[in-house]
Amino acid sequence: MAALVLPEYYADLATTTLSSSYTAGAGVIVVTTAANLSTTRQFHFMITDATTGAVKCIGKATALTSSTFTVTMTTDANAASGDNVTIVQCAGAEDQIRADGCQFGTFANLPTVAKAGDRYKQTDGPYEWIYQSGAWQAFYNGWPATLPPSGSWTTEGLGASGFFSYTNGFGYMVSTSSSNSDALSMSYRTAPTAPYNIVVRVQQDASGLIESIVRGASPTLANAAGFAVGWRDSGGKYLVLMLDCSTGAGATFLVTKWNSITSVSSSPVSLSNTTQLAYIFTQGALFYKISRDGSSNLSISISIDGGNHWVVLYTATVTNFLADAANVAWGSYLHSEGAAICLFDWTQT
Fold it and tell me: What pLDDT shows up at residue 280?
């Protein structure tokens, strides 16, 4: 017989009948049909008199082959052929429903089989998952997320002990600096064909939680620098929106132009009145959009409501500073502190 090794459940309160009489203590019943019943999970049932509806037996099926149950009865009596067999809801079934619908585990163990509404909390990353429309949808900080692309990244400026990793569904970068000079630590990939919009969420790992997951060790960085998102041209120049957390006076947004990852241009662009916005964004509401239209126009925008409304912070043309906009990039701004930066979302349209 097929062993029902998983905890009990109920199958839509399915009903069938006995196809032959049952004798108390026999340990086996035979039903007319078991088409709606599980061959992998235990289930509880009751047998009622076909005429009066009186309950005769209450038990649990521990194995099922064809139409034959192996049973353990808690209320036992003789029953006649034609008596009703009804699957019943029980405490064990309720426990199993909760266990099936609300699970947790690693990214690699995201269940391949699920039902609409099932939830899964990832233990080795920031995502929570809800199963809908036949697929798992990731959520981060309550907003739907699209996992960043896992390949075709090129990194530069990580420093001697820095590293880049795509792990458990998200991108992660640790970068170090050995001097007090400004520098970028960036990961970039080929820009899509214009026009395009790329919405990203980049966040510092200020608590060191993600670093401890990725590296399996205690955090090693003070993480007082900031992040950057924007473009890299084919000659190594960068035009980026930067959240600068290194001054000690709070965070502020800047658009900066870099001749290389270690050489800031003499013409940075200050964004006035963005200190308060920067504070909001350091609290986790991180939505940034880098765009190019069908021509040569570039723009950088921010949103605090999941992308329903956008505020354009900066516009430029490709040749305003860059030779081209060959690559889109994300990473960190360094001074002397080093940084741990996470890329949690990359939605490209």
Answer: 47
**Residue 282: what are its φ and ψ, rounded to 5°?**
-75, -10
pLDDT given for residue 221 in this prediction? 62
Judge if 115 and 198 occupy the same domain: no
pLDDT tens per residue, range 20-47 = 999 999 999 999 988 877 777 788 899 9
Phi, psi (deg, nearest 5) at residue 267: -130, 65
The answer to whether the CB of 58 falls within 8 A of the CB of 74 is yes
Q: Is 214 exposed, middle or buried (0-12, 13-18, 19+ CB in 10 A)?
A: buried
Query: Alpha-carbon Rg of the chain, whole angstroms?
Result: 30
Other Cβ atoms within 10 Å of 231 Cβ, number: 24
Instruction: Let me know whether 128 and 226 are in one domain.
Output: no
pLDDT band at 240 (very low <50, low <70, confident <90, very high): very high
Domain assignment of residue 128, given as a range: 106-140
Do 123 and 226 fall into the same domain?
no
The pTM (predicted TM-score) of the whole model is: 0.75
Q: CA dist 41 to 5, 47, 92, 115, Å?
A: 6, 19, 11, 16
Residue 279 confidence (pLDDT): 45
136 with 145: CB under 8 angstroms? no
Q: CA-CA distance, 241 to 337, in Å (whole number)?
A: 19
Nearest Cα to 334, choosing from 240, 269, 271?
Answer: 240
**Count of C-beta atoms within a 10 Å radius of residue 184:** 24
Please check whether residue 159 lies inside any domain of the structure. Answer: yes
Tokens of 347: 């939605």
Residue pLDDT, tens place only, 285-319: 578 999 999 999 999 998 878 888 898 888 999 99
Domain match, 82 and 134 both:
no
Predicted pLDDT of residue 244: 66
Q: Per DSSP, what are the bridge partners of residue 33? A: none
Query: What is the chain's mean pLDDT, rounded?
Result: 84
186 and 289 co-located in one domain: yes
Q: Are 231 and 225 in contact (CB under 8 A)?
A: no
Q: Are 181 and 262 in contact (CB under 8 A)?
A: yes
Rounded distance between C-alpha atoms, residue 139 and residue 121, angstroms: 10
